[in-house]
Amino acid sequence: MNVLLAGVVIFIVLILLLLWLPVARSIKPQHNYRQQQNIALYQQQMAQQPSHELATELSQRLLQDEKYLENQPHFSFAQDQSAVSFGVKIALASVLIGIPLIWYVALPRYSDVVQGEQEYLEQKQKAMMANLSGDNQEYIEKIQQQLRQDPNDAKLWLLLGQVYMQANEWDSALISFSNAEKLEGSKANILGLAASALYYQAGERITPKVSQLLDIILQQDPQEISALSLLAAEAYKQQDYARALSLWQNILDSGKSQVDRRMIIQRMKSIEMLQSPISP
């Protein structure tokens, strides 16, 4: 995503440079044209050999007009032209920048870039979670220190909540997920983690609150990993092995990068072993 943003910025800068480079128009001041006309008229009148009084009057008029023009600003006409050209430049820049951006966003490649960035972050978070030890207080403090520097980082709040869940600190986990929800809204992945924390906080029971959250989550994303994992764990506990297998298979089929495929396959094999007949 950083590469994409850098490319967009460079593209916009190039467009603006092309539009705002001096186009080397030398716009003559308006008073130059009037001055030339006055001189030409004066020469025509003098060619007719007027009387001395009329010649003096014509000379005074020309001199007065020259003084008047000297006191006028020499850039009024240029300003008007510049104002018009600036508006045209703004419109042209909007078209040149807007059309390619809209076209690029509509391409499948853009969604691939966004998805790739999301998968990278999920893999990084997954690796960090896998390295957690039993005593993760130091790691919690590290995340808290980062949040003091940037309390508006929703991903850090989600990570902190997951670390709290590893330590069975459900209240702290729920507070972290609530902060993430305030920043990013009621997204399915945030609600899924909150539902899991509530489920384990209640002693691995699907309370009315958990059930309500699960309905909301699955309406947003029928393949939300945390929600499906919770339902699969509950089905396994209730010995509803067919439902558990179906839910775990749905998780595997989702193709999401945060799925721990090895662990799910092991659980599915354990069910198959439980269901297989014992040979005499």
UniProtKB/TrEMBL annotation:
Which keywords, in A-to-Z order, does the entry hold? Repeat, TPR repeat
Which Gene3D superfamilies does the entry mention?
Answer: Tetratricopeptide repeat domain
Repeat found in the keyword field: yes
Q: What are the boundaries of the signal sequence?
A: none
What residue spans do the TPR repeats cover?
A: 154-187
The record's listing under PANTHER family reads: CYTOCHROME C-TYPE BIOGENESIS PROTEIN CCMH, FORMATE-DEPENDENT NITRITE REDUCTASE COMPLEX SUBUNIT NRFF
Any idea what this protein is called? Cytochrome c nitrite reductase, subunit NrfG
Species the sequence originates in: [Pasteurella] mairii
Q: Which gene encodes it?
A: nrfG
